[in-house]
Amino acid sequence: MNSRISIYAVLYILLLSCKGINENPNLVITNYASSEHLIEAKELLKTLNDENIKIVDFRNPEDYKTGHIYGSLNIWRTDVSDSSFPYIGMRAGKKNIELLFGELGIDNNDLIVVYDDKGSPDAMRLWCLLKNYDFDSVKILNGGLKSWGSVGGKLTTDPFSYNPTQFYLPEKSSKNLWIDKDELMDLISDESKNVILIDTRSSEEYKGNHIKKGASKGGRIPKSIHIDWADAVDLEGSKKFRSIEELLKIYKGLEMGLKDTVIVYCHTGYRSSLTTFVLRELMGFENVWNYDGSWVEWSYFDELPYEKDSIIL
């Protein structure tokens, strides 16, 4: 109970500090719990030629070819996925990431700046992956390509390459962000544990009415609460993250304490990576875990429980 009292006190202070924030859509938001892993377009524009910055365009190769930020390398979902599973979307192992980054010419001393053009769910997957392996020197371009264009940033169609390096992730991971299906099953099966499970997909996916490619059936994990990942982003406008005031309104119904265990999932762990970032970094919740396999993995196993909305004719 005390944790909830403390969080509401903190949130009240944050709300006061947010007064008037929406009056200026170009305002750089600084009142998140942490903005360490965000970078604004104006700042990137000033440091674009820094030799220790490597920019990653996390879009499919076809989109990359049509225009990307000068100097950016292209990484796509297939590059950071493990194809050995009978279902899609599982994260690549540590050695695979090290080999990929080394081949791209990314150095351990580099700051990696990642962007996409969808409001950051794809870019955030790479943040989550690197953060899971204890690599902290990564930032997300807030607003992605939309914000880059808004500050006069130019695009090029020229591909970029750097000399290969020896890239290594830290030996030990102390900030694991992932939870697997067995751990999740144990948590939701134990009535004594207070676990908040958030489904970040669309409402139609949550209800079981829409089955995306890769899923074996429609539905959701039992005890899931639906909060669409996209609610946290100004998708129709700047594509930036919403203010802390807006985020508090989105999540206030969950009555979460800062130390409560929160599990998020989506279809293949991309959209839920963004929600993980929002809850952990921007809002300061300490125990937020991303279920990597998400619905694609969960739906593959017939023995795992699930539920869906009934269709009334």
Q: Pairing-aware structural class of the strands and helices?
A: alpha/beta
Helix count, DSSP H or I runs of 4 or more residues: 11
Going by CATH, the architecture of the largest domain would be 3-Layer(aba) Sandwich
- The protein's oligomeric status is single chain
User: Order of strands in the sheet with the most strands?
Assistant: 1-6-5-2-4
Could you name the ranges where pLDDT drops below 50 across 5 or more consecutive residues? 1-30
Query: In the residues, how many domains can be counted?
Result: 2
Summarize the structure.
With 313 residues, the protein is of the alpha/beta class. It has eleven helices and twelve strands. Helix content is 32%, strand content 13%.
Key phrases:
32% helix; five-stranded parallel β-sheet; globular; Oxidized Rhodanese, domain 1; alpha/beta; 313 residues; 12 strands
